[in-house]
Design brief:
InterPro entries: Mit_KHE1. With about 270 residues, the protein is an alpha/beta fold. The chain has one domain. Helix content is about 60%, strand content about 10%. The protein has 11 helices and 6 strands. It has a 4-stranded mixed beta sheet with strand order 2-1-3-4. Strands 5-6 form a two-stranded antiparallel sheet. Strand 1 and strand 2 form a beta hairpin. The chain starts with a strand and ends with a helix.
Length: about 270
């Protein structure tokens, strides 16, 4: 599957990274996710791949967490479940936007189209993508193991006559860091094409300012966008891009405004 990424500077060295929202194709994927422990055990027993078994367990836990979260969201106003949902929203607001972006790089992506302002050099854009991927691998691997190590401690709260919020939060963070780690490794693999590296020593000319790696086997294509450049030029302010510029970019390139705006708010 090919995905479109949008990359642009927010202010100075602060950049925004987003993936265009696509029509939901998760129906088939969710159909392959076991819904009960019995189905999960059956699929694990029939599988000879350890990595596939890990993915099955992760998808099973993720599905259960999503269903539980939707149940909290539908709870009556003022109820305990509704208050827990409000607490969860406050905790989720603290999740870094880079983590959300890396989680969007799913395992089924085989190629990426990278849109960026036409005034930037393609090599710089690709270098920034590699940087966020390399940094993501280091950070999310550390926090994943840290979250997993806390799970046994949070089980102690099960003796309380209340929902074990610490356990489920730590479990969610472990899952989130796992997915961000997988996305980091996938992105790094996609933008580390060896055929480009072999030619990267060639001197850059005006004609090669925007490099589009367009061979049939290329996992990435860099596409300079004059439209994106115009949005940034019009919306540039002393404290970074204006909210209107973010809105125009999100609408044009099908980005999630809530996720992308976090890059602006964390400057």
């Amino acid at each position: 599957m090919r995905a479109r990424l949008v990359v642009f500077p927010v202010r100075g060295r602060n950049w925004c990274f987003g993936r265009s929202i696509e029509p939901c194709v998760g129906g088939a994927a969710s159909g392959n996710t076991p819904s009960t422990l019995k189905c999960l055990w059956k699929k694990i027993s029939n599988s000879n791949s350890g990595s596939n078994n890990v993915e099955l367990v992760v998808d099973f836990v993720s599905n259960k967490m999503n269903n539980a979260w939707m149940g909290l969201e539908k709870a009556p106003e003022g109820s305990l479940k509704n208050k827990i949902h409000g607490l969860g929203l406050k905790l989720l607001a603290g999740v870094k936007p880079s983590e959300i972006f890396l989680k969007s790089i799913s395992k089924d992506i085989t190629a990426v189209d990278i849109a960026y302002p036409s005034s930037l050099k393609a090599r710089l854009v690709r270098r920034r993508l590699r940087h966020i991927a390399i940094r993501g691998v280091a950070i999310h691997k550390k926090y994943f193991y840290g979250s997993v190590s806390l799970l046994p401690l949070t089980t102690a709260f099960t003796v309380l006559p209340l929902p074990n919020v610490p356990f489920f939060w730590v479990l969610f963070r472990a899952y989130s860091h796992w997915r961000a780690l997988q996305g980091s490794e996938k992105l790094l693999k996609l933008v580390s094409d060896n055929s480009y590296t072999q030619n990267s020593h060639e001197p850059e000319t005006d004609d090669s300012k925007h490099i589009i790696h367009s061979t049939q086997v290329s996992p990435w294509v860099l596409r300079p966008s004059k439209e994106l450049e115009e949005f940034i030029r019009r919306g540039s302010e002393d404290n970074g891009l204006s909210e209107q510029a973010f809105s125009d970019i999100c609408r044009t390139f099908c980005l999630n405004m809530n996720d992308v705006s976090k890059f602006r708010n964390t400057m």
